[in-house]
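Retro notes, item 3 of 5
We never archived the inputs for the 6-O-phosphono-beta-D-fructofuranose complex last cycle. Fixing that now. Sequence and ligand:
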Amino acid sequence: MKRIGILTAGGDTPALNATIQGAVARCNQLKIEIFGFIKGFNSLFNPKVPHVHLNPLYQEIPEIDPTKGGTLLGSSRDYVDPEDHGVLDKIVDRLKRLGIEGLICVGGDGTLNGLQPIAERIPAVLAPKTIDNDLGLNYPSEPDEWVRTPDAKVKDGFRYKRTEPGVIFNLNHIVNYVTPGFATAVFVTATGVERIRTTAESHRRIAIIEVMGRHSGYIALGSAYGRPDMVLVPEHPFSLEYLVERVKHLYDLQKNVVIICGEGIVDESGEEFGAETKSTDPAGNIALSGAAEALRAKLIQMIPDRYFQLYRRGESAREAIFTRKIGHTQRGGRPILFDRFYAAQQGGKAVELLVEGQNNAVAVLQYTSTKGFYVDGYDANRFRDRWGLIHARQMPAALYDSKHMKPSALGIEYLLPIFTDAIGDDDMEHTRQTLFAAGNLAQPYHSINTDINKRIRCIEADVVAAQKAA
Ligand code: F6P
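Structure as it came back at the time:
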């Protein structure tokens, strides 16, 4: 292989540049050229295919910085429609005109769905990323547990549902134990919980903190590191009466309560608390918002104002109960050591998979209690259900203790290998040295996009240059 391409697709994570750096470093060792495509699949839809040569003379360009969040290549939620053969043929023709012999897509479950039809035309592999930690399998046979029922109201005419798990869950059998971006997102949410706690304590308030993750509760689970009193996850419908009972018990005891809620939490009838909006990414994913606000409204209805007045802790439930969304700070900024280290390894592994001729494979991060973490290749076809779809992974029931609304003993066992040494000394030192640097006040922000812009080339220009050289 002489030249490959790489793109970053879907919602960004803090570890994307680390994955790119790992891929470029491996290409340099193997003397392979690597081109980066601008704004994910969007570049491939554009006849000019804007791209950047990431390793001229097999040296990485200086803009590649694995400690910087976001992606120097840009990302988009552009959708590759597997049925649109015309567009797919054009994409592959463009890649071939650029001499690209294999493609690495850095993305989540949506990107992996989008990659399927491309892999039928040109070798393509996935290097995973997503803060939601929902790209993977809780056990290898999980895709076989999906069933579908016709429903004219949904896109494609079918509704997909998981049946009861058919295996005993075992941490050693997880495929892709954790995805790049998850650790940093949890670092941000756990820090947020700690900060909100002390203000809730001081003012005798009840805080509901909403975290991302769509229908997957992994981020909410990990946020338990910030020691909230309760963690509500989308996978476990809960009774509001039970929640209120626990809230009152804790409030009586400690005069403040902190609740983490995943944005996709559902009530006992399975109805989402938050609102859904359509998003355009390849999996047809939806964006969720407003769960914390909706939960607050319920608590206000169920806990009378006099409850707060009785103890002189506030005038009303409305005043005492507040919400905060951690929001996009979960997705941005410097990745912590765990993410940087393994994202780079997965990027390097993706290059190796292409070189080994493993088309339609995923560079997964595996973990076993005996071996620790290691990267491996996994056939993407094994992620697909019997109809060919790749579903977002949900958090297994065994990781959550629904009585205490906290991680279960197994949930704690799951989190420990990821987080015990997740923060590097340099992560803290970086904050110490850079956040209050005097130059921050005087100098404008210098965007990576400004520098990358100067390196972007387009296909027409390349063809003209090649013709001139001939
Ligand atoms: O999938 C990543 C994610 O951050 C989800 O956790 C969240 O629901 C969604 O993307 C938000 O999307 P957007 O950035 O388009 O609002």
